[in-house]
Amino acid sequence: MTLGKSGYRSRSITMPTTRTLSTRITDLSRLLIAGAAALALPLAGCSQGDKASDLTAPRNHLLTEDRGATGGDDQLGGGVNAYLWRGALDTLSFMPISSADAVGGFILTDWYAPPGAHGERFKITAYVLDKRLRSDALRVSVFRQIFQDGAWTDTPAAANTASDITSKILARARQLRAANGGHDD
After folding, report:
1. CA 159, CA 9: separation in Å to the nearest integer?
2. Window from 34-43, 71-80, 109-118, 167-176 with minimum mean pLDDT
3. Is the sign of the CA dihedral 86, 116, 109, 95 positive or negative?
4. Ramachandran area for residue 182 (φ above 0: left; ψ -120 to 50: alpha; else beta)
5. Burial call 63-96: b when 16+ CB within 10 Å, e when fewer
6. What span, in angstroms and rounded, lies between the C-alpha atoms of 185 and 183?
7. The pTM is what?
8. How far is Cα 35 from Cα 27, in angstroms, rounded to an integer?
């Protein structure tokens, strides 16, 4: 105790400095982090999740996943025939694909102008409707436009165009099934 200017005894209180407080907070933070790590580390071995390499590797389910002939019981689910799906993708691969859904079973192309046809373009929509490899499990629509008077105008495609494309898709699907040993799995 010391005597102040007024003659009263005063006590000097030492306040911790900012540096002392920040050191204590840092030490406390380190302790909490170390404790959390010590608790989490033993539990990490119990994980049944995907490997880190599986999580970072991109996958293209549309082109590489083998779903079996009946749509398969894989991660994609859905109810479409895998051979028809792959056959449609392979057959329509010369056109730019605008949208494709393996679960819903549809493929929509963007407009495509054949190299020899000037002022004419086509768009195709293919639907896989069933799990069975049958011709009625596939529906193909062909849209045609011609360029006249400075604008694209809808015109009907030739009557056999959709059936020709359907036949090519079915033939490709049968090739894929034969390459799989004729198995439907």
Report:
1. 111
2. 71-80
3. positive
4. left
5. eebebbbbbbeeebebebbbbbbbbbbbbbeebe
6. 6
7. 0.58
8. 12
Please tell me the distance from the alpha carbon of residue 109 to that of residue 100, in angstroms, as a whole number: 8
Res 58: pLDDT? 46
Inform me whether the pLDDT recorded for 144 exceeds 90. Answer: yes
Query: What fold, for 63-179?
Result: Alpha-D-Glucose-1,6-Bisphosphate; Chain A, domain 4 (3.30.530)
Rounded to 5 degrees, φ, ψ at 153 are -120, 135
Mean pLDDT value of segment 94-113: 95
Give the Cα separation of 140 and 109 in Å (integer). 11
CA dist list (Å): 109 to 1, 99, 112, 129: 91, 7, 8, 18
